[in-house]
Design goal:
23 helices, mainly alpha, 5 strands, about 575 residues
C-alpha cells in the first residue's frame, strides 16, 4: 500500500481468484469507471463478491481500492474500503488490526461528516467485538448501528444490523429475542428496493432456522417434548423457505449454514440418516468456499457421529471444528464443543483424556480473556490518538497511509511487527487453500540472538537497540526477495517463505539458506559496535504445507529450543550429515 498504483488509464483488470465467476456487471463497472473514485467503488464491489471464494483476493482488491481513494482524495470511498478491510480482518482472525481500520474510518466519518457511512462502520466494529468475545460490546454497537442507520435512512445497513443482532441472540442462548429481531427485519424489508429484498430474505430464513434449533434444544433440556417438536417443525419450514429464497439470491455460505441447521433439526427429530446427509452436504459447501470461517459443518458432522455412538469418528470432526472456531474467535461454541468432548470421554471411561480436555477448555478461556483485554486496550489507545485532519504539513491521505503502515511496522528495526507478521502468515496460509491442494512447501523459522541480555547488561540498551537493528539488516540482506521477516518480540525474529515448487531437496535448501543467515551474523564485524563482544544467532525451522501453519510454528519454536540446548550458533534440525548430537557451526 506504500507505492502508487499504475496509471489508471493503462491499468489491467484487477486480479481475481480462479473460478470466481464474477458477474459481468461488476467487471463492467470497473472497466467503465472514469476516475479513481469510481474505480475505488468498483474494486470494493468486486471484493465483496470475490470474498465468497477467497478472503485473500478480496483483501488485495480492497487495499487497491483504498489506495485509489487516497489518490483521488475521496474520504467516502476510503471509509468504504476501510470498513471492508475491517470485516476481512475480522473474518481472518485479525481483530486488533480490524479495530485499527475501524478507528481510522470513524475519524474520517467525523471529520468529513459522512453520516451515511457511520452505521456501517459501527456494524463492522460490532462484528469485530463479537469475534473477540465481547458480546456485550457487540450488542451495544449493533443497537447503535441500527439507530444510526434508521436515522440516516440507510435501510440496507439497518437490515444487516438486525440480522447480526438475531445471530448474536441465538448464539447467546436467546432464541426468542432472535425471532423478534427477525420479525422486525421482515417488517422493514418492504421498504427496501426489490433487489435488496431478494438479498436479505435468505438471511431472514436462515436466522429463523438457527433460532429454532436453539429453541428445540432448550425445550429438550427442560423435558418439554411438545415445544421441542413444534420448534423442529417451524425450523424445517424455515429451511424450505430459505432454499426457495436462495433461488433468487444464491449465497453458498447461507446454504452451508442452512444444511448444518437442517442436520441438527433432523437429529432432534431422531432421523440420524437424514441428519448425516445434510451434515455432509454442509461440509461439501464449506469445502467449496475454499476459506472456511464457520465451524458449523464439522460440528454437525461430529454430532451425527455421536448420535451413532461413534466417538472415534466424532473426534477428528470436533478437532476440525475447534480449529476453525479458534481461527475465527468462536469462543462460546468452542467451550460447548470442549464440554461435549469431555463428557463423552468421561462416559467412555477415559478420565485422563476428559481431564486434558477440561484443561484445554480452561486454557481456551484464559486465551479468550487475554484476547479480549488486548482488543479493549487497543480500542482505548486508538480513541486517544490524534485525528487524521490536515495539519498543514500532511494531508489526511498521507496521515492515513502512515497510520496504516505503522500498524504493521516495528519502530525499532523497520521490519514487520508481531501484528504485521501474523497478518502476513495468515495470508500465506490462506493463499495455499486446503491441505489436499498442492502447494510449494512453506519454510517457517524462529531466529533468536544468543545471550543478548549481556549486551544490555554489560554495555547499554542503546547499543542493544543498534545491535537489533544491525541483525535485522543482516537477515533482510541475506534472505531472498519476497521473504516474510519480522520482529516477533525482544531479540526474536520470524522468517517465512515458500520454497520453489521444483526444489528437489526442500529440507537441504531450507537449512542452507538459514545457515547462510546464521553465518552472516556470526561473521559480522561486531567489535566496532560492541567492544569486546560478538553476536551469534540460533535458528529453529520447520517445513510443510502452508495450510498447517500453526503446527509448523510450534515445531519451529521447539526446534529453536533444541538449537539453544545443543550449544547455540546453529540451525536445527541439522542436515543429515550433521545429525550428531555435538553438531555445531562455530
Amino acid at each position: 500500500m506504500n507505492g502508487p498504483l499504475p496509471d489508471p488509464v493503462c491499468s489491467p483488470p484487477p486480479p481475481l481468484p480462479p473460478g470466481a465467476g464474477v458477474p459481468r456487471p461488476l467487471l463492467a463497472r470497473w472497466e467503465d469507471a472514469q476516475d479513481d473514485t469510481q474505480r475505488a467503488y468498483a474494486l470494493n464491489a468486486l471484493a465483496r463478491y470475490v470474498q465468497l471464494s477467497s478472503w485473500e483476493a478480496a483483501r488485495q482488491l480492497v487495499e487497491g481500492a483504498l489506495e485509489l481513494a487516497l489518490r483521488a482524495g475521496s474520504a467516502d470511498a476510503a471509509v468504504e474500503a476501510l470498513t471492508d478491510l475491517a470485516i476481512i480482518c475480522t473474518e481472518t482472525s485479525a481483530q486488533v488490526l480490524a479495530l485499527e481500520h475501524v478507528a481510522h474510518a470513524l475519524r474520517l466519518v467525523k471529520e468529513h461528516a459522512l453520516t451515511q457511512r457511520h452505521p456501517g462502520v459501527i456494524n463492522a466494529r460490532a462484528l469485530t467485538r463479537l469475534t473477540a468475545g465481547d458480546e456485550v460490546g457487540a450488542r451495544r454497537d449493533l443497537t447503535l448501528a441500527l439507530r444510526l442507520a434508521r436515522a440516516a435512512g440507510a435501510g440496507h445497513t439497518a437490515a444487516f444490523a438486525l440480522v447480526n443482532l438475531a445471530w448474536l441472540a441465538s448464539v447467546s442462548g436467546q432464541p426468542e429475542l432472535a425471532l423478534h429481531q427477525l420479525s422486525l427485519l421482515e417488517e422493514q424489508l418492504v421498504t427496501l428496493e426489490r433487489h435488496l429484498q431478494h438479498e436479505m430474505w435468505p438471511f431472514v430464513h436462515e436466522g429463523r432456522a438457527h433460532a429454532y434449533v436453539v429453541l428445540a434444544r432448550q425445550a429438550r433440556e427442560r423435558g418439554r417434548a411438545q415445544a421441542e417438536a413444534e420448534a423442529v417443525r417451524r425450523g424445517l419450514q424455515s429451511i424450505i423457505a430459505c432454499h426457495a429464497a436462495l433461488v433468487d439470491s444464491p449465497d453458498r455460505t447461507v446454504l452451508m449454514l442452512c444444511e448444518s441447521h437442517h442436520s441438527r433439526l433432523k437429529l432432534l427429530a431422531g432421523e440420524v440418516q437424514a441428519a448425516a446427509h445434510h451434515a455432509y452436504a454442509s461440509l461439501n459447501h464449506a469445502e467449496a468456499l475454499k476459506y472456511v470461517s464457520y465451524p458449523e459443518p464439522y460440528l454437525a458432522l461430529a454430532e451425527v457421529h455421536l448420535a451413532r455412538h461413534n466417538w472415534e469418528a466424532a473426534q477428528p470432526a470436533f478437532r476440525r471444528a475447534l480449529e476453525v472456531g479458534r481461527q475465527h474467535g468462536r469462543f462460546r461454541e468452542n467451550q460447548r464443543m470442549l464440554d461435549m468432548m469431555a463428557q463423552w470421554q468421561e462416559r467412555a471411561g477415559d478420565l485422563a483424556a476428559a481431564l486434558a480436555t477440561t484443561r484445554e477448555a480452561l486454557e481456551e478461556g484464559r486465551l479468550f480473556m487475554d484476547r479480549l483485554a488486548e482488543a479493549e486496550a487497543r480500542m482505548e489507545e486508538l480513541d486517544a490518538e490524534p485525528t487524521l485532519t490536515d495539519d498543514g504539513a500532511h494531508s489526511w491521505q498521507e496521515r492515513l497511509r502512515l497510520a496504516e503502515q505503522q500498524a504493521r511496522e516495528d519502530i525499532l528495526t523497520g521490519l514487520l511487527n508481531r501484528r504485521g507478521l501474523e497478518e502476513g502468515l495468515r495470508r500465506l496460509s490462506a493463499a495455499a487453500g486446503s491441505p489436499d491442494q498442492p502447494a510449494p512447501p512453506l519454510l517457517v523459522a524462529f531466529v533468536d540472538i544468543d545471550h543478548f541480555k549481556r549486551v544490555n547488561d554489560l554495555l547499554s540498551h542503546a547499543l542493544g537497540d543498534q545491535a537489533l537493528r544491525t541483525t535485522a539488516q543482516l537477515l533482510a540482506a541475506t534472505l531472498p526477495a519476497g521473504s516474510l521477516l519480522g520482529r516477533y518480540g525482544g531479540e526474536e525474529f520470524v522468517v517465512a517463505l515458500p520454497l520453489p515448487p521444483d526444489e528437489p531437496d526442500p529440507a537441504g535448501a531450507a537449512h542452507a539458506l538459514l545457515d547462510t543467515c546464521r553465518a552472516a551474523v556470526a561473521r559480522h564485524a561486531w567489535e566496532s559496535l560492541l567492544p569486546g563482544m560478538t553476536l551469534t544467532i540460533s535458528i529453529g525451522y520447520a517445513l510443510g504445507h502452508p495450510s498447517g501453519l500453526d503446527g509448523h510454528l510450534k515445531v519451529a519454536d521447539e526446534h529453536l529450543y533444541q538449537a539453544k540446548r545443543r550449544g547455540r550458533n546453529q540451525v536445527y534440525p541439522p542436515v543429515a550429515a550433521d545429525a550428531g548430537p555435538a553438531a555445531s557451526h562455530n
